[in-house]
């Protein structure tokens, strides 16, 4: 009898059951926002809630709530960051399903109310629970979440979900919007925190497709140059931006760029951008140490004392503020005609690339419109770099125009290694995870071997799989190798025919490029120049330092 009970209640864990799937309600191909429902085993997790039309959101979600046994459209909601395309539908969602738990980072939970500027802040309920960074939290039985700073915006996180069954741990990472580079008010996503996660699924944004960006400092200089030229031409500059992120980055840039520091110039901040600045000031302890340090010496944004002056623009000054050249930052949704008035001088409206801003008014003052790049997301190479570091079985692209996402999904370097998806809204993506799935060949592989000490020599044994790498032939060309220590690690280098020819002269003369290899202070691959920061260190021959002096080589 007892046997019967236990036999009938024993549930086979279903080796063929599909434990993971993603139903995108909205994927931000244009500006419709991001809202994804992810299922991991029995858990239903809503990632972001950026749908613009809350009616659409609610009808969709209510339908899905009706389907299962649960009265809620998901078990919980996780918000990656406070931008409207990820969070604006949240208040309506909360009002319809007050029992649905919502989580985000602490900073995001504080910035969220900026999404509902028409509501009095004290009337917006505190429905978002703050989760700590870099620390796993079990939100439901067998479902653990961990947040990692993602760059892009203060508080923005990549969300790691781990669902554990008896047989298997499934890991899904959703990047939200991410940026690998440091910007002025937020540090970039740290790749090393995410490496080696053994991911099943990566849901990643692809805003910039495969395009490649110039170095951030160049982007900043080009923009500063453009603004500087306009002001020299007696033109005022209007910079429409979203409330959070870009606007504050622009202010920091304008206050610290050599074109503007100390200059008798007014920078006016209007609308939601000004509220965004106030919100940042409340978050000062969460901003990078360099910013906190800056703020100890002078106000971060509002400053009438230090030039250029940064001030809030009173509404009654809108129509007259451009009489002498100035800079105005305003809300990307505001009517720019308010500023470009007959009494003012000419205007230059500078629009950020890849941010949807409508400009269709006829202006009363002479007005030029131009665009600039100050990226807030990683470019194509940054995106593929993150993917290769994570090596998931599935890559799901969202957040970007469908053509840009198609550029990414068709990359051979991705197709060869991963299951790549770019779903449109409403299309269910099944994400089968095979134990037998061959982990894709990684761009970087570790080879484990053995050391044997044999009296006067040692031998290093490595598996012959290493010879499959195309680099092996060059490495093994002469059969001779050279080793040197790098900290505690031993680095091996294959000696080429050319190295052997030059070995006697101990000189690296093959290059016209200034580098340690042809610097007169380098001997035995060590720097002997006390004036160099590399003094006394082992150097690589391709290395360089400002104390470089060319070797006088008569050969
Ligand atoms: Zn964003
Ligand atoms: Zn976004």
Automatic annotation (TrEMBL):
Metallo-beta-lactamase domain ranges (all copies): 32-231
Gene Ontology MF terms in the entry: RNA endonuclease activity
A Pfam family reported for this protein in Swiss-Prot or TrEMBL: Lactamase_B_2
PANTHER family noted in UniProt: CLEAVAGE AND POLYADENYLATION SPECIFICITY FACTOR FAMILY MEMBER, INTEGRATOR COMPLEX SUBUNIT 11
Record protein name field: MBL fold metallo-hydrolase
């Amino acid at each position: 009898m007892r046997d019967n009970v236990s036999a009938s209640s024993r549930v086979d864990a279903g080796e063929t059951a599909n434990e993971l799937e993603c139903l995108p309600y909205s994927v931000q191909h244009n500006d419709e926002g991001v809202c994804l429902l992810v299922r991991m085993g029995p858990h239903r997790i809503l990632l972001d809630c950026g749908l613009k039309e809350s009616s659409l959101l609610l009808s969709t979600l209510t339908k899905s709530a009706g389907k299962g046994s649960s009265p809620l459209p998901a078990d919980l909601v996780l918000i990656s960051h406070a931008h409207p395309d990820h969070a604006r539908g949240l208040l309506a969602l909360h009002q319809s399903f007050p029992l649905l738990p919502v989580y985000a980072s602490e900073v995001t939970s504080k910035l969220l109310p900026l999404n509902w500027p028409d509501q009095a802040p004290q009337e917006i309920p505190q429905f978002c629970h703050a989760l700590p960074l870099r620390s796993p939290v079990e939100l439901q039985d067998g479902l653990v979440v961990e947040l990692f700073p993602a760059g892009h915006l203060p508080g923005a996180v990549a969300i790691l979900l781990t669902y554990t069954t008896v047989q298997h741990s499934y890991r899904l990472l959703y990047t939200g919007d991410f940026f690998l580079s440091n910007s002025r008010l937020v540090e970039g996503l740290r790749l090393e925190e995410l490496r080696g996660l053994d991911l099943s699924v990566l849901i990643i944004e692809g805003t910039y497709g495969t395009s490649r960006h110039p170095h951030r400092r160049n982007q900043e200089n080009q923009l500063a140059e453009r603004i500087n030229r306009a002001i020299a031409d007696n033109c005022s500059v209007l910079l429409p931006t979203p409330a959070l992120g870009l606007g504050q980055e622009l202010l920091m840039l304008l206050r610290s760029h050599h074109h503007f520091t100390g200059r008798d110039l007014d920078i006016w901040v209007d609308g939601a951008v000004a509220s965004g600045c106030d919100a940042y000031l409340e978050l000062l302890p969460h901003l990078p140490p360099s910013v906190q340090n800056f703020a100890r010496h002078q106000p971060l944004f509002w400053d009438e004392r230090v030039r250029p002056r940064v001030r809030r623009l009173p509404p009654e000054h809108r129509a007259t503020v451009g009489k002498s050249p100035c800079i105005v930052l305003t809300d990307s949704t505001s009517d720019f005609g308010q500023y470009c008035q007959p009494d003012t001088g000419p205007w230059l409206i500078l629009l950020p690339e890849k941010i949807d801003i409508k400009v269709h008014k006829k202006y009363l003052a002479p007005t030029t419109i131009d665009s600039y790049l100050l990226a807030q997301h990683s470019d194509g190479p940054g995106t593929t770099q993150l993917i290769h570091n994570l090596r998931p079985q599935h890559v799901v692209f969202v957040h970007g125009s469908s053509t840009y996402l198609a550029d990414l999904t068709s990359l051979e370097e991705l197709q060869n290694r991963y299951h790549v998806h770019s779903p449109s809204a409403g299309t269910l993506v099944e994400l089968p995870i095979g134990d037998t799935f061959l982990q894709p060949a990684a761009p970087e592989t570790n080879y484990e071997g053995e050391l044997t000490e044999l009296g006067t020599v040692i031998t290093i044994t490595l598996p012959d799989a290493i010879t499959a790498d195309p680099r092996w032939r060059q490495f093994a060309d002469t059969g001779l190798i050279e080793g040197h220590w790098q900290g505690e690690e031993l680095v091996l280098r294959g000696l080429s025919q050319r190295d052997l020819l030059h070995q006697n002269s101990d000189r690296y003369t093959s290059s016209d490029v200034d580098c340690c290899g042809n610097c007169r202070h380098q001997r035995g691959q060590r720097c002997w120049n006390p004036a160099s920061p590399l003094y006394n260190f082992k150097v690589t021959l391709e290395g360089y330092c400002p104390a470089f002096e060319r070797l006088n080589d008569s050969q």
